[in-house]
Design goal:
Elements lengths: L13 E3 L3 E3 L2 E11 L8 E11 L9 E5 L15 H7 L3 E5 L12 H4 L5 H8 L4 H15 L6 E6 L1 H12 L4 E7 L8 E2 L1 H22 L3 H14 L5 E2 L5 E2 L1 H4 L3 H4 L5 H10 L16 H11 L5 H6 L5 E2 L6 H8 L1 H4 L1 H6 L15 H4 L7 H9 L9 H5 L5 E6 L7 H8 L5 E6 L6 H4 L1 H13 L6
Parallel strand pairs: 5-6, 5-7, 7-8, 8-13, 13-14
Antiparallel strand pairs: 1-3, 2-3, 3-4, 4-6, 9-12, 10-11
């Protein structure tokens, strides 16, 4: 094991910065020089982690808590002040916020950086190293260099971070003291479980759409109007500021952010309030507002996090290909999700959810260069295992998991099937929060999970 750099003395594989402040928190940056492929020593990539403590606790001997971000392909949020789950965690932990490989400051894979890779085949060979298995390898690399005496730490996994936590429990449980999971128990069956995920997902979507339009019935006509306008436009859509095109099926993607988290319904409603430019000159043609088009691209945000689109279906693959699973299951539900037919027929247009479709790599400007790589990833069969069911059946690490009953992203029934395979897990089933519970009521959610493991909420 390399010498620790926490005291400020850099080593070849770990550079630690000095302490600095945001309100009520002290922060320290760490950069680790890590193999892209752990079976080889080179090439190396950087993985960035930010250490966070409450003010005045910099030198205290505190247990470590690693936060595993949702995604895949998203960096950790940047702390601007103490609040939410971070405040609760910093009461007793030294928190580590790791930008998962390929995100944030961890050798980020952006449209521009990936353009350096000249062939689709080479890009796929690179991207295959960016799933949960290697994220766990990175976490272990960091733990052994950061935690005194390379002791175990607690992990908190949100959404895809929970998927990573279950991979951690499968292959490196000795590195763990406790595991906390929020909205992130993955399907763990062999092969590719994406079909089961999307079948359940489309059922949940119908319900969420019904709830949205019941809340805002005036939006039925507004959304239908926008779909008709897009369908009748030259090329089947209107140009987006980035150079992409907004089509009816692209419009439906707003459900990804709008239908599955608290305040999402409201934000979606207010977005459509500004869909149209006002007609201020008599006889001027009606058009969708620049405000709406810019807001749409901020909601979708594939330009900032293309890794999410490229690797999303692969997170469900073990020794099998996904073959554009979401597109296949959508085709089975097209009688409900065909936006143009719904608008023509006077039915509500249904939004879609956490699903990636092949046509995105035509319609989203930032994704177009990666269309061939996306196809190869969809066809790729030789994905390694992400879970060890035998190890999970014999799990000894204390685990508490918040399972949200109305979770649009991580299906409740599939989550409970997985929970039944993890020995000793304590699920907390609640409909008080949606998938965004850790963001919306973080201190309460984290406090509840910790109480389940420290005896404050006994089993009986």
């Amino acid at each position: 094991m390399a010498t620790s750099a926490v005291d400020g003395n850099s080593t070849p594989d770990h550079v630690a910065g000095g302490w600095y402040s945001v309100p009520d928190l002290r922060l320290r940056d760490h950069r680790f020089n890590i193999p892209l492929d752990y079976s080889l020593d080179h090439p190396k990539i950087t993985v960035f982690a930010r250490e966070v403590v409450a003010v005045g606790k910099e030198e205290q001997s505190l247990p470590y808590l690693l936060y595993l971000q949702g995604g895949p392909g998203f960096e950790c949020a940047r702390p601007t002040e103490a609040g939410g789950w971070m405040s609760r965690a910093c009461e007793e932990y030294r928190v580590v916020l790791m930008d998962q490989r390929g995100t944030g400051l961890s050798t980020p894979l952006t449209p521009s950086s990936m353009s350096q890779v000249k062939s689709a085949e080479d890009l796929v060979n690179y991207l295959r190293h960016f799933r949960a298995d290697n994220i766990v390898h990175d976490a272990e690399f960091i733990r052994k260099r950061l935690v005194p005496d390379a002791g175990p730490w607690t992990i908190l996994g949100q959404s895809f971070g929970g998927f990573c936590a279950v991979t951690y429990l499968s292959f490196a449980p000795k590195g763990l003291k406790q595991a906390l999971i929020t909205g992130g128990l993955p399907p763990i069956g062999k092969g590719c479980t994406a079909d089961a995920v999307y079948k359940a997902g489309f059922e949940a979507l119908v319900h969420q759409n019904e709830k949205f339009y019941k809340r805002f019935p005036q939006d039925i006509e507004i959304v239908r109007d926008v779909v008709n306008y897009l369908a009748e436009s030259e090329g089947g859509g209107v140009p987006l500021p980035s150079g992409g095109i907004l089509t009816p099926r692209g419009l439906q993607l707003l459900g990804l952010s709008g239908l599955g988290s608290s305040t999402g319904f409201e934000r979606l409603h207010y977005l459509f309030e500004r869909a149209w430019d006002p007609v201020i000159v008599q006889g001027a043609k009606r058009r969708i507002s620049d405000y709406f088009l810019n807001a749409y691209e901020r909601w979708i945000a594939f330009d900032a996090n293309p890794l999410y689109a490229l690797l999303h279906e692969s997170i469900y693959c073990q020794g099998a290909s996904s073959l554009w699973s979401a597109q296949k299951i959508r085709a089975e539900n097209e009688n409900k999700f065909d936006a143009i037919e719904a608008a023509k027929g006077g039915r509500p247009v249904l939004f879609t959810g956490e699903m990636i479709f092949p046509w995105l790599f035509d319609e989203v400007h930032a994704l177009r260069p990666f269309k061939d790589a996306a196809q190869l990833l969809a066809e790729k069969k030789d994905w390694p295992s992400l879970y060890d069911i035998a190890a999970l059946n014999d799990n000894k690490v204390p685990v508490a998991a918040a399972v949200y009953y109305e979770d649009m992203y991580v299906n409740f029934n599939l989550s409970m099937e997985t929970a039944s395979q993890i020995a000793g897990i304590r699920p907390w089933i609640t409909n008080e929060y949606m998938h965004s519970g850790l963001r919306d009521a973080g201190s309460r959610v984290l406090d509840h999970l910790l109480a389940m493991l420290n005896g404050k909420k006994p089993l009986f």
